[in-house]
Amino acid sequence: MSGLARRLLALLLLALAPAVFAHKPSDSYLTIEVKPSSVDGRWDIALRDLDFALGLDADGNGELTWGEVRARHAEIASYATQRLKVSADDRLCTIEVGAQQIDSHTDGAYSVLPLALRCAAGAPARLTITYALFADLDPQHRGLLNLQARGLARTAVLGPQQPMQVFELGALDRWSQFGTYVREGVWHIWIGLDHILFLLSLLLPSVLVWQGARWLAVERGREAFWDVFRIVTSFTVAHSITLTLAVLGVIELPTRLVESVIALSVVFAAANNVRPLVTARLWMVAFGFGLVHGFGFASVLAALGLPQGALALALVGFNVGVEIGQLAIVLLFLPLAFAIRRTAFYRRWVMLGGSLVIAALATVWFVERAFATKLIGF
Hints:
By secondary structure, the protein is an alpha+beta fold.
């Protein structure tokens, strides 16, 4: 196996390895409000995730009742607060949890923990948040933070990949807000394994052409370049349209439906590489499914909390970040794929083998999302 082939295989495995964790996305919603004399908050944590971690379903019938949750409130509060640390001006705050409630999000029921943070006297100039919820159980879990301080909103994605983040609470100009949403867009595409696998499934045949019932290498790099350009551009335009419509509230779709169809899009794109139904104009496939992926992006952006005074800036920044993340994937993949496109290794192991693995994982992913269950016990 050549050095180029080894690098391409490593890149594909890097993208596929985390996908074994690709069950229904696990999110929590953390809101912290810094006031002149106090710091308060609210933490919404999915009951399905708490049940997985703590075994809340006492009778094991697969349905959580209010009595089962209420009986474990103290344990839920202890479990959560042990995994969240907040420091104001480098001095650790104590966290007290109030009377817990139950609330519904688009993907199910959540335990709501009111938080009172006891910090040093005076309004802090800097807040440090260390977040480790479910870090030992789900490497793809993320906490969506909405931090309100001095009349400004700051957002961030917390999780195992970025367990500690520092927030300066001084003035925040529009360019800083723009940069924040660019970073969130880049980060989302890199942790959004469904989007990565969908894009890779469309990129795999870009250096090949279907002729005589088999895949053959394209002759010129220009053909592969324009094929990729059309695919990425179509996907970008499509998800930008629905992202904007969803964030503005023009169209709303249930999260479970969106995430399930996204999983199906990955299955279709990967299976099409094994037994092609669409061999030309893959950009149309990218556009069609890109419309659905846009709703997936919107759910993250909306959960982060959009600054109403800078809504357009936030939308543009997040989109720019997503495109930067996509471009990085393309720039890593395409040169390597083009260099070894004539080899049996690429056609059999990378193209066909990789597509089969992606299709199988995405099928499991679809079942988990559509039926709110877990087939992979991580």
